[in-house]
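Reopening this one. Same input as before:
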Amino acid sequence: MIDLKEFNSFIEKNFHYVCGVPCSYYKDYLDFLTLHKNETKVKHIAATREDEAVGIASGVVFSGKQALVYMQNSGLGNIGDALTSLAQLYKLPMLLLISYRGLEPDRDFPEHSLMGDVTEPVLQSLQLTYGVLSENNWKIEMERAIKAMEQESSPVALLVKKGVLSQ
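Same output, byte for byte:
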């Protein structure tokens, strides 16, 4: 697991808001945000649905600020319309952190198996630039994703493997 204080410092330098739907892959980081909500510069907004999180992030970007959205890969089915008819249409750069559930050998629940297999093809069909965030490459991948979202003026996704932001 990466150092959460270092990760949050990186987030603070690059984003004003983080919003999304909780997933156990983010538990420790979300706990960190809650515990340090009075000290951290980044504002956290919990959403009830993934498309709602994309809508909130779109409003943040329209206001001239940077937004990060976190979700589970099973939520990709919920964000298609919000992405294509809002974020991509209006060229709104935002970072999507998507937990990469259902990968071998960690197929923890049957419902994640299929989604794990189709996550990358779904991102490709949505024409999203994406990378994979791991414990060893997190800062490089985050910097690459931020550069891509700024250059493309578009949402960019990072798939988060188990154990990167939570034990």
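So the earlier flakiness isn't reproducible anymore. For the record, Helices lie at 4-14, 27-35, 50-62, 76-87, 110-125, 138-152.
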